What does this fold into?
Amino acid sequence: MKVGIIGLGLIGGSLGIDLRRLGHYVWGVSRNPATCATALTLGAVDEAAPHLDHLTSLPNTDIVVVCTPIAQVVETVRQLTPWVAPPTVITDVASVKGAIVPPAQAIYDHFVGGHPMAGTAGQGITSAQPDLFRGRVCVLCEGKGLAQVQYLWEQVGMTTLICSPTDHDQAVAWISHLPVLLSASLINSVHQEPDPHIQALAHRLASTGFRDTSRVGGGNPELGQLMAEYNRTALLSALSIYQQELARVRDWLVQHQWAELRAFLHHAHHDRQQFDSCR
Amino acid sequence: MKVGIIGLGLIGGSLGIDLRRLGHYVWGVSRNPATCATALTLGAVDEAAPHLDHLTSLPNTDIVVVCTPIAQVVETVRQLTPWVAPPTVITDVASVKGAIVPPAQAIYDHFVGGHPMAGTAGQGITSAQPDLFRGRVCVLCEGKGLAQVQYLWEQVGMTTLICSPTDHDQAVAWISHLPVLLSASLINSVHQEPDPHIQALAHRLASTGFRDTSRVGGGNPELGQLMAEYNRTALLSALSIYQQELARVRDWLVQHQWAELRAFLHHAHHDRQQFDSCR
It folds into this structure.
């Protein structure tokens, strides 16, 4: 296959490394010439340039994978249209799908929305690594060229799962976007503690429980904001339910209803094991 | 030293193992004769019995460490009073101090409240292990015999930190008890998702972010309930502030105030590094 990658960061770079090791031809685009040079050095691309018109290997590309930040995906698809035509497939890797798939498909007939659920705390081409995707799930949305995109991600070791943009967005609101807001609010709440002595003590005593609960809230602020902005409706619906649950917990504390609280914690204890990643 | 341990679970058993390896004499009490036998086999105690009156090595004990669940600590101190007298010191390991230290000191003059901040996901004597406490912090509250209790925990590798019961309880409400409630509410909220298909998808797609954020909420329900019950006031105060923070986040989402949300996430990103355990 000949694969193009727009945006050579952690995801784009890691994908390039894996594809080239499998014998595929990979070209890449990054606005930053230094990133292009690093991608070449790391073996993530065969050719890289800051603009599409500088690439010599564009013709006969099978798939273009848009790995830009969420806010640039649809515009990037638009910028690709003078350069590619079906049967070339365009796909993306953004963590929201409802705000991207319909407009992207309106612009380009062979667009398939994708979300490879893999990553590290790292960012940028220097964090790119082989086998980042192996054993993880890639969500794909129906579109012309689906089988080809499915083949791409399965080649690098992912299991693919097909669902609608709306279902994807509501599910990731629950398991990814809502946790970021809860976790960040925990960190910032401690900062609201009025007694500086207690605040210092909390900083000192925090242990593995706080570290784990606060981890995703301490992540990349730009990414967190974009996820919220582009998945606003699903996230608000999850947040409403969460606030109701928390209000119930508060009522039990206020009214000394300890049996109810215990049943709630029992439910959480057992329900957590229903999540694949928590077994 | 001669040390007595009441309650041979994870904490009591692990403490016994460390103290005996250091050459101290350790007796233990557990209601369950099988636990006494296991503690002897594991080398956590030199002598163990289900009742104080069955012990031959009670006289001249330097410190008695009460390692029972929170709800039994004060009553256990009361039951010890016919058997021990100053300068013997009684201390405890409970994760709340305000509900324990004043009543326990009213019952026994040489009582020192303690909270060794160490543990594992395990429970009971079979989870006991050497070096559980090494490198961790033990909070102690002022009381007659403080230096001796300080010496005990420093012997097994802990750093001791002295503060008031009230300050301790507010700090652990922030970094330990509040995270349990937030995390359990996350798990139970997903269960409230009305569409079973989306719920199944969330279970399938949950990854490391969800796993970490939900970890403490999926812990021991009895312990979670007791922490809330015995630290109710401090926990309610932390929960109120948290609910206000979350309401601000919700308002930003409703009103599309993305710059405010981004600043909030930036603050969380930087503030998290102020916590010793998160560096």
